[in-house]
Structure formats: C-alpha cells, structure tokens
Amino acid sequence: KKRWARLWATSPRYTHLNNIDPKMLNGSYVNLASTLPRRHASMLIWLRTKHSLLNDHMHRIAKSDTPDCPHCPGSYENASHYLLTCPQYARERFILSQKLRRKATMIPHMLTDTKAVPLLLTFVNSTGRFRATFGDV
C-alpha cells in the first residue's frame, strides 16, 4: 500500500484528483461508488478524471474540432465550465444551488459527498448533456 501511494504521488493525475478527493487511496471513492448504479459511478469517474464527452477532452483525443463549449464560443467546455459557469445550464444550476447552497460552487464537494452526488446526478440528467451516452442518468 505504501509503494502504491508513492507511485500515485508521482502520477501526472495525482494533483488534479488529490484536489478533488484527498482520501481516495483510503477507499472513499470505492465506498461512494458501491452505493451507486454502475453508470452513475462511471459518470463520477468521467467528471473526476476529466475524461468525459465534454469538448475539452474530445478535442484532446481528436474527436472534436474545438475544445470550446457549443454554447459559449471561446470558453473551454470542461467539467468546471459545465458544472459552474455555462449559461446554457443556468436553470438546472439554480435548482442545484437551492439544495447545496454555497457548496454548489465546490466541485470536490459535489463529486465526493454522499448527499451531494445524487443532486449532482440530477443536475447532469436535467441538462441532457450526456444523454446520448448514458441515457437518463
């Protein structure tokens, strides 16, 4: 376990994922995912790792012509933009913020808290952004 922790700390993904869930090596994600259907757990992994159908990632793997948000030219469509700032999803974000209050602006909280995750998944479903792949989340 200590060897894995040392190897993980040298990974290029360590900084980003450690900012989201510093307790990940202690099983926090496994515990959270064990309470969710598989497609919900997959959605969380996508949003946590930046490997999603959002244009920022799709452009990086040459599946999109641009990393920009389809609704906000000039703004990269990444998890932060999608969850926090894209005006296309303002109504859905308002509903989420009514339930999460200030924590609706904290991506780590939304991706790790057992009470916030179902609300986040409701947000994702109501935006329809991943419907082509996941159906109704």
Question: In a nutshell, what does this entry contain?
Answer:
With 137 residues, the chain is mainly alpha-helical. The chain has helices at residues 2-9, 14-20, 28-33, 38-49, 55-60, 79-85, 90-100, 107-112, 116-127, 131-134, and strands at 68-69, 72-76. The protein has a two-stranded antiparallel sheet with strand order 1-2.
Jot down its keywords.
about 60% helix; mainly alpha; about 140 residues
Widest sheet, order of strands: 1-2
How many DSSP-defined strands?
2
The whole-angstrom Rg is 15 Å
Number of helices: 10
Structural class by SSE content:
mainly alpha
Question: In percent, how helical is the residue content?
Answer: 55-70%
The unreliable regions are none
Question: Distance N terminus to C terminus?
Answer: 34 Å
**Mean pLDDT level:** 91
Strand content is 5-15%
Quick one: overall form? Answer: globular
Give a quick account of the main beta sheet: strands, pairing sense, barrel closure.
2 strands, antiparallel
N-to-C SSE string, H for helix and E for strand: HHHHHEEHHHHH
